[in-house]
Amino acid sequence: MAKQEIKSANLSSTFSFSDKWETLLENKEFIKVFLSDVLENYIVKQRWYGGKASRMKYIELAEYFRIQQHDEVYYGLILEVNFTEAFYQHYFLPIAFVSDDSFAQDDRILPISIQDQEGFIIDAINLEAFRKLVFQRLLTAVAKDKTRVRYHKSELFKDCQYENSRFMGLEQSNTSIVYNEKYVLKFFRRIYSDRNPDYEMSKFLSEKKDFKNTPAYLGSIQIKDIEGTNITIGLMQEMVENQGDAWQYMLSELHKVFCNLEYKNIDIKSLPKTVDFGQLQIQDVPAQIIDWVGLNIFTKIQTLAMRTAEMHIALGSEFEETAFAPTHFNEDYTVWLKNRLLYQFQNRLNTIENSLHKLDGLALELANEFLEKKNIIRRRFVNFDWTKLKGERIRVHGDYHLGQVLIKGDDFYILDFEGEPESTIRDRKVKQPPLKDVAGLFRSFHYAIYATIFNNMETYTHSQEDLFEAAEVLYQYLKGVFLGVYTIKVQEANLNIGYEQERIFLLKYAMLEKAVYELGYELNSRPRWAIIPLKGISNIINN
Ligand SMILES: Nc1ncnc2c1ncn2[C@@H]1O[C@H](COP(=O)(O)OP(=O)(O)O)[C@@H](O)[C@H]1O
Ligand SMILES: O=P(O)(O)O[C@H]1O[C@H](CO)[C@@H](O[C@H]2O[C@H](CO)[C@@H](O)[C@H](O)[C@H]2O)[C@H](O)[C@H]1O
């Protein structure tokens, strides 16, 4: 097809190529049209596209490979999206050609005629035939696959057949497919030039350490790129039957707790406080607090603390595989940490200055406080002296929050070890104090408490000031009960998380770091929520 014709064409007209589908990607003309005229528009509309806050410059095809079985061929594309802000991101997009438009109802990318056969290029994940092929390739994976597209399966993935498949259909940043209502295959969308930590951690925890409270690792798909680097594009795990995630659960429980303030006529001012970051057993929680909050939340928090401790014990118990072996604090880590946090902090200052117009009321007040106290916050980050820290660093979850935890009966399952979306892939694999995950979860408790207040402010009869006061009391007890179980459990297993003052220092440090991270996340993706990390930062720096 002539260049002129293509340039003036749009998605409603049909592109026509004389190549076979099996060789179409060798046609430079096709690639050019496909990338600039088609994908640039398509990709920005996708839910999994993470570059929405930046301006796209152009897309390049970094690599492509075949996903095939016998003569059934699909292509996996690795797209390099370049931004005007001088950075790039890589995305995985598998494509299929279908001639029957009933197969192309969703995620149509391009109407096209190939060797006079009319049809569409679509995102292959929509096609059952593609999903079935991938399932079969995983099931028949051989131990030492040396081909470019490497399928790997664990010993647990056997004695089954493809029955059916469907989209997971939940809010997520990748695309997960449920097979036979028993297995989940996550296709990573944003990909990195390395093995994905989600794959590494899932395989390590479930296969090597037999940690039961994460879905069992069943298989994976890796691509060997031109430079010989392994890139993970898929992770297959057992599907955990569940009753939803801990975030939703917590929101509904906390709503009851705040309603109790009125129903039980609780005198907020007389609620007993407890030592911040102390360790509490349930019997240490005053009757007045139990009467207000109930027992249920506290017992759930104890179980979550136990599972978190078990996860860290498993992660800290490796002495052969260097990628997982525990290590200590040192100068290199300190330089890395401070550079990273100061850079992130500067970025947040900039984002908030540019976002002040989006904020009002308390959010604006807190944003101004954040700007006024920037030197205090910066000093807190600089004030990290590794010579005083005796604990260990291990591989951690990295983006641990209530939304990453599934509820099954009275138990919890921990998911999604990809790490913070904003960090580079190397940074996500750096060994961290395990308390960094605990701090992530504490931030999530704080989020859940304040999200409950902000979502139901009209329903509650108390003033905002009173609700905040009750919130901080509740938050202290939730943290205390968590630490009461977590600290004892990890210490019993000889995982060194530091002496008491060190633990408090690390928790406070990591909570401030997390809240500053969250501020950027919220301002970029859902500004109305920025008030929650702003309140968190204000509480941390004023206490
Ligand atoms: N193995 C699994 N069993 C049951 N549900 C799962 C499983 N893996 C993921 N999910 C569900 O899918 C959601 C998104 O999964 P997650 O791994 O967090 O994806 P993403 O990395 O795209 O955010 C989870 O919150 C959970 O509800
Ligand atoms: O789940 P992801 O890996 O995509 O994590 C990102 O999105 C999270 C929001 O879904 C975000 O979490 C923040 O909001 C949560 C409530 O929605 C709260 O429980 C967390 O504590 C808070 O950090 C996460 O930070 C971001 O990386």
From TrEMBL:
GO molecular function: ATP binding; transferase activity
Reaction it catalyzes: D-maltose + ATP = alpha-maltose 1-phosphate + ADP + H(+)
Name of the molecule in the record: Maltokinase
Family: Belongs to the aminoglycoside phosphotransferase family.
InterPro entries: Kinase-like_dom_sf (IPR011009), Mak_N_cap (IPR040999)
Keywords associated with the record: ATP-binding, Nucleotide-binding, Transferase
E.C. code: 2.7.1.175
Maltokinase N-terminal cap domain mapped to chain residues: 42-107
Enzyme class: transferase
Domain of life: Bacteria
